[in-house]
Amino acid sequence: MTRAQPEFRAEEGRLIVGGQEFKNYQILEKLGDGANGVVYRALNTILQREEAIKVWRTRNSRDVRNKVEQGLREAQKLARVSPQFAVTVYSAQEFGGTFLATMEYVEGKTLEWHQKNSDLSLRIRLAEVYLNSIVQTTTESTRHGDAHMKNVLVFEEKKSKYETVLRMKLCDFGTSIYSGKEASEQRHWRIVSRPWAWNGSAILT
Question: What angle do helix axes 120-137 and 181-192 make, rounded to 10 degrees?
Fold first, then answer.
């Protein structure tokens, strides 16, 4: 039997899930709305730190997965990955009838944004960085099951007064139908093998 999906909303800076308010967080904006959940940028009012909150939810009637179980598996998988390559999970819990997690907020652009706006040399460089991130994070327990450009964040990190480096972090490891080894590898290959076509005009075929 499919578990009923609770209603949730962000209003006046508050996150309400299943009729309960998620305390100690001020919602600042919605960051994304994907197939498995909604992500908000929020202020942790206790620590005075910006964080991201993901709420797992059912998008349509065809999705019959238990969102508490799915969210738990995804959060556990993400928590096993080095923070060098993925966002850090701060907390995860069942709340208001579904599952939500608080995690590191990274201010940057998605790989999808770079697909449309970056020049060829940067797209090739990002493809190389992405491939290295996947190589470094892929194990039997952390295989990326939802590889697409919206789930990859690119940002600048200041190493010193005179040096700034380009960094990349994965923000969702998924447990979707694509989490099998062969399908997962195919999805990664589609991302890294054609950076020349990222802006919509393929140079190579």
Answer: 160
Report how far residue 135's alpha carbon sits from residue 177's, in angstroms, rounded to the nearest whole number: 21
Angle at 19 between CA 14 and CA 21, to 5 degrees: 30
Report the distance separating Cα 144 and Cα 170, nearest Å. 9
Q: What is the pLDDT of residues 173-204, one digit of tens each?
A: 765 544 455 555 555 555 655 554 545 433 33
The encoded tokens of residue 85 equal 């390559």
d(CA 33, CA 175): 17
Return the number of other C-beta atoms located less than 10 Å from residue 154's C-beta: 21
What's the pLDDT tens digit per position in 61-114?
Answer: 777 778 899 999 999 989 998 999 999 999 999 999 999 999 999 999 999 899
Burial 178-194 (b: 16+ CB within 10 A, else e): bbeeeebeebbeebbee
pTM comes to 0.81
